[in-house]
Amino acid sequence: MATYNRAHFIVETLKSIQNQNFEHWECFIIDDGGTDNTEEVIEPIIENDARFNFIKRKDAHAKGLPGCRNQGLDLARGEYIIFFDDDDIVHPDNLKICLNVIESQNIDFCHYQKQSFENQKPIIANIPITIVKSIGKEDIKDVITQKIGLASCTVLWKKKCFDNIRFNESLFFAEEWECYSKIISEDYKGVIISNTLYFNRKHTNSNTGEFYNDNPIRRESYAKAILFVVQNLKEKGLLSSSLKRYFITFSMDFKEYLLFETLLNEFEMNRFEKMKWYLYFYSYSIRLPIFKVKKALLKPI
Question: Which of 97, 166, 273, 277 has the most C-beta neighbours closer than 10 Å?
Answer without folding.
Answer: 97
